[in-house]
User: What shape does this take?
Amino acid sequence: MNLRKSILQILLFVCLTVPISIFAQSDTLELPFFEDWSSGSLETNGWLADSNWSINTEMGNTEPSVEFDTRGEDSYFGELTSRVFNGSKLTEGNVWLCFDVKMETNDSVHRAQMDIEVNYGNYKWFNRKRFKVDSGSFDWSPQKIDLTEFAVGHDFQIRFNVSAWDGGVQFWAVDNIHVFRTCPSPYRFSVETIDTLEYDKYRLNFSWQMDEPDQGEWLHWDNGIHAGGVGATYNMTAAARWDAGQLIDYDGLRIKKMRAFLNDDGLDSLIFKIWEGDSADVLIYKDTIHPFEVELWNEHVLKSDIFIDASKELWVGYSIRHQPSGMFPLGYDPGPAVAGYGDMWREDNWDGNEESKDWDRISDFGIDNNWNIQFFVEDPTGNDVQIGQKPSNNRNTNLSGYNLYQSVNGGEYELRNFIPWEYGDTTYSIGIYAGPDLHCFKLTALWASESDTCESAPAIAKDNPDEDFVCVLLVGNEENRIEQSDLVHCYPNPFSNSTTIEYTLQQSATVQISIFNHLGKQVGLIQQNQSVGKQQITWDASGLPTGVYYFRLKAGDQLASGKMVVMR
Assistant: This one.
């Protein structure tokens, strides 16, 4: 072993992460989880806490809350740790931590802080947010933290970790801890009455938008879990490689994006790279990522087209520049290493020139791990061949379809149809008999895998972003329905206080206009005797809340309906 490798071995060994055994508890918490301390005890939900943590029944948002009392000490450490959350079978959606926090200081504050941390996979604690005491006391402040990278596919814990070296804090308080999951929803949901199928039966056409999952898959040698990091020199490069012929099932497909987990901070540059050929002798892609995230996956969409040539070796990785001493930025998995594939490493020259350096395998130095490096192959054919290990963090890729719910005249929403997902298809039609009735609909997305199912929140309406439903008022009696072209105007629409409904009568009649809200409740009635020809009626909505309203017009045997939006 040459001198460079001897030095490298010493430097790499010092940054190995030792697993910490926190997951000995047999019972786990399920999502969604909410803690408001109303039980009056930390033990109810199994919180582990230092002695300075206790329930305060006289303070909270609202009372009670959990409080860390510093007891006048300037130096202290205190942890409030949850039981284990069951996330191992989750494959879909995003996991969030919400809570309220409050802090009270004395006149002088120096070095004190609260860290919000998460642990998964029985490895290290990751800091997700830090509150530094540098601007004095603050009242209850709502917080929201994304735990997805650590919680989807893994059992995990959270903790609130307070510390001070030269404090001045009187207390920290936490309330309304909420851990929950969401998954992507459709949006811009709308409905139209297009035509009739038969007497009094209408065709309703629904449309929406959806950010659909990418067609393809992530390829990698790591298992998707981050376990620690290494650092050795001022400039260095980590890479994963595939032999010529190993990617034959992906030959000619486009590499759309790549990602890597950065374990530590302090470096100047993160540079994503792709190479071809023996020993990565031809650099075919390079892009500097800024800003980059620490203790998170850094995902990068390629800015130029790179296609897999299966006749050549493929290398995917990244370089870091100006790593300070004592930092360990290159993230790796728990292992074992796929030696010579998932664990390639190179020390670069001080000027960043990498051409004169040879590649090493970190497993040769006793580090039995793979780099957290992955790339995404765009595959419209649905190819499911897996090279390397099966990904554990492929989220939001299993869109099963949509659930369409219906409510009639303000009744409960009930499932009407399941709409199977087809890529690019965001329309659907149904036939429905008219009442006259007010029909309202909600649309959700259903994400499902072998171990998990997640239903999204209802889609937001296209015409009114404040509502998650769409409605249509069907009047029936098609033979006498006023054609929509004869309803010349409903103006202005949207409006704040009043609008004018203008229409044409085929004969003199008593005109009756009934106004309904989205629950099917009648909120207005206008009745006038009018003669043949173009007519109008003004509706005053100044006493009603904002939202979507529907009108039904009846004039003798003539019928019509429409929609109006009140906005203020």
In short: Residues 92 and 395 are 5 Å apart (CA to CA). The mean pLDDT is 85. Residues 3-13 form the longest helix (11 residues).
